[in-house]
Design a protein that fits this description.
With 299 residues, the protein is α/β, with parallel strands linked by helices. Helix content is 32%, strand content 11%. β4, α4 and β5 form a beta-alpha-beta unit. The structure holds nicotinamide-adenine-dinucleotide and magnesium ion.
Amino acid sequence: MPDDNQYSMQNPLTQYPQPPFPKQPQSAPGTVHDLQPAADHGETSYKGFGRLAGRRALITGADSGIGRAAAIAFAREGADIVLNYLPEEEADAREVVQLIEAEGRKAISVPGDLKDEQFCQSLIDKAVAGLGGLDILVNVAGKQTAQQDIAELTTEQFDATFKTNVYALFWLCKAALPHLPAGATIINTASIQSYQPSATLLDYASTKSAIVAFTKALAKQVISKGIRVNAVAPGPFWTPLQPSGGQPQDNIPDFGSETPMGRPGQPAECAPIYVLLASQESSYITGEVFGVTGGNPLP
Ligand code: NAD
Ligand code: MG
């Protein structure tokens, strides 16, 4: 992939790999290194334009996938970053830390499980202490585990999916808000599943609908403080989430083929919308959900 992949005019259909892909089962939470073909997180392509100069950002799920792409983009736009991820994802996270530091920005790793309220509070405390404050909260972490039949969907899974995707969002926003100055932004990660749920994703799709409502309600509540809240709703993206149980493995060879573009998105194609929503360029935008779906429109 050329260095100017994201900036040279070209046909988006052929810009990135198209199905079929090999089957490639991984165990959750997975690693970017087992993706075939490799994903593009903007490592060699993303160019910064100073849009987040001096900002202090916390990004969850920053080791891989969409969160990794956002972290790389934010650093190149001038932000210092606290990264959260699960302890077993240290190897992926180390690479992101190195990429951030290569830009001369601060990178602080705070691994831990977002299903734990105490940890969420301590994550915000460490971010505020480590960065000297907090301007941007980016909630990207998520759990997605496909089940064919409601009979196979355990209470434990249902609970873990809601804890990771919804409760952690609540806990992190609640803990962060007292620290956020006017001009700060919160960006959540919904999904096309918020609107067009798959039969295999009962619990996950429900959490993603909840994230849309939470985003819109919180946006109305905190705009009086000058804080904006928006969400990004990706369609199919080429990340470890999918081959590590997010999809039945039989869906991996054709992953993304159901979109009008006929291919999955690459994380690098999602990062610019996070940058826009974090920056002052989006000053009149709050309570919105932005689809990045390869052509399947949101309602
Ligand atoms: P990913 O696997 O690269 O990222 C998900 C991250 O969530 C993991 O890296 C992990 O660090 C984090 N995570 C999971 N459980 C956690 C826990 N208990 N505590 C702390 N961190 C935890 O996959 P991705 O596709 O980049 O996912 C990022 C977000 O995008 C998720 O919210 C996902 O729901 C959403 N999304 C993805 C797609 C897609 O097709 N890949 C589509 C729509 C929405
Ligand atoms: Mg990961």
